[in-house]
Fold non-specific serine/threonine protein kinase.
Amino acid sequence: MRGRLGYDGPPIHTGAQPFTFKELMIATRNFRSDCLIGEGGFGRVYKARLETGLVVAVKQLDRNGLQGNREFRVEVAMLSRLCHPNLVNLIGYCADGDQRLLVYEYMPLGSLEDHLFDLPPEREALDWIMRMKIAAGAAIGLEYLHDKANPPVIFRDFKSSNILLDEKYHPKLSDFGLARMGPEGGETHVSTRVMGTYGYCAPEYAMTGQLTLKSDVYSFGVVLLELITGRKVIDATRPHGEHNLVAWVS
C-alpha cells in the first residue's frame, strides 16, 4: 500500500480500513498514558475513540520491537480474510512512514491471563463454568482456523494472553502476527523458524522447526492446564520441580 500511507514495502491486499497516523493520534488523545491498556515486546495498546464514536483498541508496534514489518503484514492479511465470532475483529491499520498500528474491536475485559493470575483484590476468580466456557470458545476459534479456513491457518502463538474477553466473557483469539498457512496438498508440516512463547510451544516444533496443526493443539492443552490449575505455565516463584506447569503435571 503506497500513497498517503507512505508504506514502501510489499503491497497489503486487504479490506481493512486504512487510517492515517494523525487520525489515530487524535483517537488516542496523543497516545496519552491514561489510555494505555497493555504493553509488551510488540509495543503498546491504547483504548481509543474514532471520529465515528466507535471505541476501539489501537496497537502501536514498537519500531524496534518483536513484531516487525513482516508480522504486521501477516496480521493484517490474516485477519482481513478470516471472520468468526471467536476471532478478534480487525477494523483497520496504519502504515504511515515508519509507524505501524493496528485497530481492533475493543475487548473490555482484557485477556484471559488477566483473570487467571495475580488478581487484584477487587477481581473475583473465574468460576468453573466460566473457565470451561472460555476454553470451549477458544477451541471453536482454533477449529475454525484449522478446519474451516481455506487454506488452514496455524495460529502458532496460542496462549492465555492472546485470548481476549468481551463484556460477557466471550473469548476471541488475537495477535496473528506469527500465524502461518498450514500444510497443503498432502504435506504433513510446514518448516519454519521456531517462533512462539516458551512453555506454550510444542516440544516437537521447538526441536525440529516442523510446524503442524497439532502444534496449536499442544498449546491449547497448556492453556487448559492453566485454567484447571490456576498456575502459570512458567513460574520461577514455585518450589524446585514445579517451575514448569507441564512438567509438574506429567
